[in-house]
Amino acid sequence: MSGSTRRPSGRARYTWRKLTNAGMLSLTGLAAFLAVVPLVWIVVYVASQGARFLSVDFFTKLPTPVGVPGGGIANALAGTAILVGIAGAVSIPIGVLTAFYVTDKPSTPLGLAVRFGTDVLSGVPSIVVGIFAYTVVVLPMKRFSALSGGLALAVIMLPTVIRATEEMLRLVPNDLREASLALGAPEWKTSLAVMLPAALNGVITGVMLGVARVAGETAPLLFTSFGNPFWSTRLDQPMAALPHTLFTYAISPYKDWHAKAWATALVLMALVLSLNIVARAWTMLRQARLRG
Amino acid sequence: MAVTIQAHRLVRSGWAGALARRMEHGDILFRWLLVAVAGGVLLLVAAVGYELWINSALPRAQFGVGFLSTTTWDPVVREFGALPFILGTLITSLLALVLAIPVSLGIAIFLSELAPPWLSTLLGFLVELLAAVPSVVYGLWGLFVFVPIVVRPVAEALNQTLGFTALFAGPVFGPSRLAASLILAIMILPTISAVSRDVFRAVPNSQREAALALGATEWEMISQVLVPYGLSGILGAVILGLGRALGETMAVTMVIGNNLDLTPSLLHPGYTMASIIANEFTEATYDLYLQSLIEIGLVLFVGTLLLNLIARFLVWQVARRVPQEVRA
Predict the structure, then answer these.
(1) Closest approach of chain A CAs to the CA of B164, in angstroms?
(2) With an 8 Å Cβ cutoff, are A272 and B138 in contact?
(3) Whole-prediction pTM
């Protein structure tokens, strides 16, 4: 009797469990494809809107006032190159040397503190870094400047460089290091002439990802490099940048500036996404080769 | 040949040799250089906090703790209270979390447990690209595409069905707290899903096999074994996502509508800490005004600092507990 009542309910329960299983597993798959929707939507929309305005002039001419047709973003392209250049020049050497220290002494008090500090730094909102650059550079200089913008970007880029280099240095076989030391090379030579070249590919991909990130940053530039509608390469003057120009165009009330915003977005996206794709594909290839 | 030359160089005699030996052939210098640079990075973090602190002395002296709990923000009468922005940031970030957590966990589970390797790699790659899209591009797309096409119809539907509650009271605006939350949810998806995917991958296979051997379905194995096992790591991932949402500036500023009203409605335009700084920093004409904005930055800094502390601690705990096991 008990068997006859239990068996159908047992089977019903089994069916229910199977259904839940199938349902929930398909939902996870759905979630994964759902995440791709905004990416595809943004890329396709930016490309289709931006391409309509794109021409050679857009890359070589300076911005025109509202209502004047034509014009380009040459100053913003140069500005982004200069700002990212400053950021890289400051953050790459500091980041690589810090990574050497951290890989060499991961568990000394300073080593632990620096690793933790790096984590904290990567979590600081970029707009707060902008305020920092403002108080440290803009206030004493009493003017907005490319230099302050570049330094703000350097602070944002630093944790990326440190982490990428650290991860790669850890992967360098210890044999290489020991071989170099056994041949009588001092430690600094071992670090810079043996370890660094061995880790170089990873450091470069890390730098590419860092560059991609800071090239798209707007918030820290709002009150540091400030933006500039004219051609300027002076570091003590305000300077245009791609994301900042895009922001100015986007929030303006003018239709023709909106069109320029989409074209600027296309240029910026092409830059940032291609850096990302190349860096990540390169990493994957290398990992695949290492695994054999 | 080269070795001989090296050997000769190493045994230099006289004062040059003594100096070289004394400096361990440059190693002492190199070590000090590393300590100085690494210490410099640490100092940099401290300097950010210090600069924010000393440059917000005026409003701290004038308003005290009340700065955090008063609602008037009026540069004309020199009254500054940060509560509307703090609330705005909390509401949009928390709603974004509520929306992003289920989807992110779904992605993480699909990528680590279900998808074949090639699909997992491809989707993981695309999700990482989602994180790489610049914030200002999200803002542009949000402003001209996402808000009119998705947010506005959703807001109208919510208002018609649930409009009697304060949360969804009208009138319906396009740019709104809801719009900001939805954009934020998309932006923090990659963070939460990438970290929790790694957490799931770190769960030892023996746990999976034990659950399946006991007759659990795959979903039961995931929900009753994997999720509890990695819970603190998942919590860490969520907190990292929250940290990202709190500080997000450009996209939010462009779609939230920048409005100081303190209505509870999600369909109403609002303001956040990051967006008030972005909007008014260059317009702050006197010191108290500017320093009030810097104090908001300080609140943001301390908030994200605490969140990062908690998140790193949680993720670190999982990493410590789980033995490094390579999954086949």
Answers:
(1) 31
(2) no
(3) 0.92
